[in-house]
Amino acid sequence: MAVNAVKYDSDLVVKVQTGTDPDTGEPIVRLRRYTRVKPEATHESVYAVGAAIAGLQVHPLVEITRQDDLRLETE
Amino acid sequence: MATTQTLQMRFVTQAGSRVTISLDNPRDDLTEAEVTAAMDQIIASNIFITTGGDLVGKDSAQIIDRTVNVLYEA
User: Fold this and answer.
1) Phi then psi for B37, rounded to 5 degrees?
2) Prediction pTM value
3) What is the pLDDT of residues A15-71, one digit of tens each?
4) pLDDT in tens, B16-57
5) Mutant choice from A15, A37, A46, A53 vs B, greatest count of B C-beta within 10 A
6) Closest Cα partner for A53 from B15, B70, B42, B6?
7) Residue from B11, B47, B50 to probe the interface with A (highest A Cβ count within 10 Å)
8) Strands, E, within A1-75: which ranges?
9) Strand-pair partners of B10
């Protein structure tokens, strides 16, 4: 049985460091999630929006991630 | 007393409706030019799905201050 994975939804997640844990010294990372990203949007354009958003706020940017949801369909 | 700030960027969609993209902890020294440049970037990238279609223009941008005064805490 052949199964195809079809992208149907996507989120942009901007991870920023809001502080440092006083006990362990580990960075505290908070997520800023932007939903309803077009599944067909290019990585370049999603990155550009993540970078633009990160540049407007105070916390250091950790990373920009993208979460794609795939729907599995049989042929 | 704790104050939090949120930057709200409002866009106009193809259908003429308004969509807001929000951002916590905006920088204190943000300029109008920086915010409008970021909004232009978001419009040009055109990555968001809205019920009114693509984002096509800028409506406004504002910073909301929210102050919480705790009167009682168990």
Assistant:
1) -65, -40
2) 0.89
3) 999 999 999 999 999 999 999 999 999 999 999 999 999 999 999 999 999 999 999
4) 999 999 999 999 999 999 999 999 999 999 999 999 999 999
5) A53
6) B42
7) B47
8) 3-20, 27-37, 61-74
9) B20, B60
In A, minimum Cα distance to B20 occurs at A34
Q: Which two tokens stand for residue B2?
A: 């704790």
What letter represents residue B34's amino acid? Answer: E
**Contact present, B55 and B19 (Cβ < 8 Å):** yes
> Which amino acid, B1?
M
Tell me if chain B has a CB within 8 Å of the CB of A40. no
Structure token pair of residue B35: 């915010």
CA distances, B46 to each of A10, A28, A69, B31 (Å) = 13, 31, 19, 23
Task: State the complex-level ipTM.
Answer: 0.88
